[in-house]
Amino acid sequence: MYSPIVQNERHINVLKEILKDKLGYKKNLNRIESLVVIANPSTIINKKYAPINIANKIIRNDQLIQTISNVEKDKKINWVFIQDDMEKIATCLKAHHKDIDIDYVNKYCLEKENQEDSEDLVIKNDEMDEKIRYKLRGYRLKVSNRENLKPYMVFSNDTMEEVISAKPRCIDELMKVK
Predict the structure, then answer these.
(1) Helices 125-147, 157-166: inter-axial angle, 10-degree rounding
(2) How far apart are CA 149 and CA 143, in angstroms?
(3) Are strands 58-60 and 36-38 parallel, antiparallel or unpaired?
(4) What is the pLDDT along the chain (178 residues), one digit of tens a residue?
(5) b/e for 69-106, b at 16 or more Cβ within 10 A?
(6) Contacts 24+ apart (CB under 8 A), 114-117
(7) At 139, is the secondary structure helix, strand, or coil?
(8) Name one Pfam family in it (predicted).
(9) DSSP H helical segments within the chain, as ranges?
(10) Where are the domains of the chain?
(11) What pTM, to 2 d.p., does this model score?
(12) Which of 46, 54, 68, 86 has the fewest CB within 10 Å, making it most exposed?
């Protein structure tokens, strides 16, 4: 399962490697501070069983400014980058960036249909809706099994009904559905 804590730790390790290997920073790398900022106000954060070092890294977005101010006031941390250092780090990170192109057509087994062919099919609305519902449920189950998710996490029944009623003919129309 996706974990923002683990992702954050990986990012810090990559940053430390770049600072050490590419830019020559060898000291004070353990002073790099990191946070996981939760932006969604409805996200439930249960820190009850989390170790203290992890629980202290998780904050809500409205706590970010206060947390940064507290870190700045802390006299133990006196390692500050100057403007030139920040530009070097930014340039180096930009050089290491890799774009990821995701082919959603193949990932979700979508088929490109010819719109003219789909217009030739004349089926009663109820029969067509039932066929679409059946295919969408099959598609949802297939994706949920492949991605190891619950089917409702792919799309809900309400979303499926909106797609059926909207009957989108292209990706742009589909994207307009909730």
Answers:
(1) 140
(2) 8
(3) parallel
(4) 478 888 999 999 988 898 888 888 887 777 788 899 999 888 888 888 889 988 988 999 999 999 988 877 876 666 666 788 888 888 988 988 888 888 877 777 776 654 445 445 555 667 788 888 999 999 999 988 988 888 888 888 888 888 888 888 888 888 888 7
(5) eeeeeeeeeeeeeeeeeeebbeeeeeeeeeeeeeeeee
(6) 115/169, 115/170
(7) helix
(8) HRDC
(9) 4-17, 52-55, 64-73, 83-96, 104-107, 115-120, 125-147, 151-154, 157-166, 171-175
(10) 4-96, 104-175
(11) 0.51
(12) 46
Both tokens of 83, joined, read 């403007």
Say which amino acid occupies 153. M
Listed residue (115, 143, 118, 147) closest to 132, CA to CA: 118
